[in-house]
């Protein structure tokens, strides 16, 4: 019996391509139950770059990501951006256009065992000359061990990895994996982008194209503003508005009054443990430093209404009062501590006005970072210079032995002098003459600068005489 090796290889390649279609159907981004039960956002998901809204800096004509997708030259890459801006949609477009095997994996439900099974399959594909693109949604949810499992397969080309994340890849993705992937930053959609998607949903047969839905441009604008850059929120809101609209003669009408009742209170984008948390507190801090009370109060409101712990904000304001104001207005620290206590006493929402009062005060107070810089300079010397012993004259001597060892000998008690100053050396020998505190000319610090200058003149007049 003659065996035709070429025919066998052709057969296996054919069966693998059939398997590719089956696997994609089972786990692809656009599979699922009956379309009637799918959310509107899934039903009208853009199928190609022409239908895709937003991110023109990446997928506009001639832009790098568009060229990569259209020429099927997909590298390993990370899509980073807030929710609802098209990360998963871009992956679904790639899945439809690529000739590679496309596998969708959720970081929420997958284990290391699942990963290794997929990697084994991808390695087999590579041996048959077939590329495998692995898309991982919420990749930041994978721990270090799970992320490490991808690394050798990415390195040898078994898989092309596409990850989607709402968190900063610098902090959430292993550096070794990140160095092998191109990061594309997706921006929040504009209101115009979302309105375009809403209008498409109203005319697309997959959406409401087969129904008669009447909704004004004003209502569409309200939905777009409410979505706050998130297409999924916009489409879900439109779906709820249509479901709750007024029906008459096979026409569904969405009214402004009904829409406003449906929307209720806006849910602000805010993750108390994610990057947005640090972005917000940074915005508050820098607005106060820039003496802009209006911006500072706005960022405070964004944080508190987004669910931030008021005590966290209060602690940061205590820090700010010394770091950025200091002795230019020493009342700032007192008020910051008082506001922190007020937050303890009454909590939210009542303590919001206490924090607002403090934020306005700190924004308008004179600014000085002299205390912050003084500690930074002293810290540098403490860490980088020889750890000199404490001079004997300023050591404590509670025991007889310590006194015999000259602890406290030659100590000068400042209150016994007329000027309340002494010629006693209090710095270690190797740091004599180092000056850490450099007062500014802002606010009350002028008085401290004058006092410091007075003390220096006194030492110039008396220290030489002592020697």
From TrEMBL:
<dbReference type="InterPro" id="IPR021886">
    <property type="entry name" value="MgsA_C"/>
</dbReference>
<keyword id="KW-0547">Nucleotide-binding</keyword>
<dbReference type="InterPro" id="IPR003959">
    <property type="entry name" value="ATPase_AAA_core"/>
</dbReference>
<comment type="function">
    <text>DNA-dependent ATPase that plays important roles in cellular responses to stalled DNA replication processes.</text>
</comment>
<dbReference type="InterPro" id="IPR051314">
    <property type="entry name" value="AAA_ATPase_RarA/MGS1/WRNIP1"/>
</dbReference>
<dbReference type="Pfam" id="PF16193">
    <property type="entry name" value="AAA_assoc_2"/>
</dbReference>
<dbReference type="InterPro" id="IPR027417">
    <property type="entry name" value="P-loop_NTPase"/>
</dbReference>
<dbReference type="GO" id="GO:0016887">
    <property type="term" value="F:ATP hydrolysis activity"/>
</dbReference>
<dbReference type="Pfam" id="PF12002">
    <property type="entry name" value="MgsA_C"/>
</dbReference>
<dbReference type="InterPro" id="IPR008921">
    <property type="entry name" value="DNA_pol3_clamp-load_cplx_C"/>
</dbReference>
<keyword id="KW-0175">Coiled coil</keyword>
<dbReference type="GO" id="GO:0017116">
    <property type="term" value="F:single-stranded DNA helicase activity"/>
</dbReference>
<feature type="coiled-coil region">
    <location>
        <begin position="105"/>
        <end position="132"/>
    </location>
</feature>
<dbReference type="GO" id="GO:0005524">
    <property type="term" value="F:ATP binding"/>
</dbReference>
<keyword id="KW-0067">ATP-binding</keyword>
<keyword id="KW-0235">DNA replication</keyword>
<dbReference type="GO" id="GO:0006261">
    <property type="term" value="P:DNA-templated DNA replication"/>
</dbReference>
<feature type="domain" description="AAA+ ATPase">
    <location>
        <begin position="73"/>
        <end position="189"/>
    </location>
</feature>
<protein>
    <recommendedName>
        <fullName>Replication-associated recombination protein A</fullName>
    </recommendedName>
</protein>
<comment type="similarity">
    <text>Belongs to the AAA ATPase family. RarA/MGS1/WRNIP1 subfamily.</text>
</comment>
<dbReference type="GO" id="GO:0003677">
    <property type="term" value="F:DNA binding"/>
</dbReference>
<dbReference type="InterPro" id="IPR003593">
    <property type="entry name" value="AAA+_ATPase"/>
</dbReference>
<dbReference type="GO" id="GO:0000731">
    <property type="term" value="P:DNA synthesis involved in DNA repair"/>
</dbReference>
<dbReference type="Pfam" id="PF00004">
    <property type="entry name" value="AAA"/>
</dbReference>
<dbReference type="InterPro" id="IPR032423">
    <property type="entry name" value="AAA_assoc_2"/>
</dbReference>
<dbReference type="GO" id="GO:0008047">
    <property type="term" value="F:enzyme activator activity"/>
</dbReference>
């Amino acid at each position: 019996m003659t065996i035709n090796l070429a025919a066998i290889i052709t057969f296996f390649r054919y069966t693998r391509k059939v398997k590719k279609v089956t696997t994609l159907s089972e786990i692809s981004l656009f599979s699922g139950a009956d379309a009637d039960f799918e959310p509107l956002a899934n039903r009208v998901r853009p199928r190609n770059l022409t239908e895709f809204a937003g991110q023109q800096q990446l997928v506009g004509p001639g832009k790098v990501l568009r060229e990569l997708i259209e020429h099927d030259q997909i590298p390993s890459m990370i899509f980073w951006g807030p929710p609802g801006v098209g990360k998963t949609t871009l992956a679904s477009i790639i899945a439809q256009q690529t000739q590679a095997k496309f596998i969708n994996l959720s970081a929420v439900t997958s284990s290391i065992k699942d990963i290794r099974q997929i990697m084994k399959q991808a390695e087999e594909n590579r041996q048959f000359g077939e590329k495998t693109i692995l898309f991982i949604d919420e990749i930041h949810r994978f721990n270090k061990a799970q992320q490490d499992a991808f690394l050798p397969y990415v390195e040898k080309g078994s898989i092309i990895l596409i990850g989607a994340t709402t968190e900063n890849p610098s902090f959430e993705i292993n550096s070794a994996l990140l160095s092998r992937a191109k990061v594309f930053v997706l921006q929040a959609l504009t209101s115009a982008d979302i309105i375009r998607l809403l209008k498409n949903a109203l005319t697309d047969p997959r959406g409401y194209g087969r129904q008669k839905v009447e909704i004004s441009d004003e209502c569409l604008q309200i939905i777009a503003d409410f979505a706050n850059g998130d297409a999924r929120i916009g489409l879900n809101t439109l779906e709820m508005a249509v479901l709750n609209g007024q029906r008459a003669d096979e026409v569904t009408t969405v009214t402004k009054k009904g829409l406003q009742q449906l929307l209720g209170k806006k849910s602000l984008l805010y993750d108390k443990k994610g990057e947005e948390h640090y972005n917000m507190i940074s915005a508050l801090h820098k607005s106060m430093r820039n003496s802009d009370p209006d911006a500072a109060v706005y960022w405070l409101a964004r944080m508190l209404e987004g669910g931030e712990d008021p005590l966290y904000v209060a602690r940061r304001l205590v820090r700010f009062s010394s770091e950025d104001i200091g002795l230019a207005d020493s009342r700032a620290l007192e008020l910051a501590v008082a506001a922190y206590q007020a937050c303890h006493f009454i909590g939210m929402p009542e303590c919001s006005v206490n924090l607002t009062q403090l934020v306005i005060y700190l924004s308008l107070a004179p600014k000085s970072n002299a205390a912050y810089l003084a500690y930074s300079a002293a810290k540098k010397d403490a860490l980088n210079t020889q750890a000199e012993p404490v001079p004997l004259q300023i050591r404590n001597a509670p025991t007889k032995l310590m006194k015999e060892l000259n602890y406290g000998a030659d100590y000068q008690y400042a209150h016994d002098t007329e000027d309340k100053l002494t010629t006693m050396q209090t710095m270690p020998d190797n740091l004599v003459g180092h000056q850490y505190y450099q007062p500014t000319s802002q606010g009350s610090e002028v008085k401290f600068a004058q006092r410091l200058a007075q003390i220096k003149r006194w030492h110039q007049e008396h220290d030489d005489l002592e020697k």
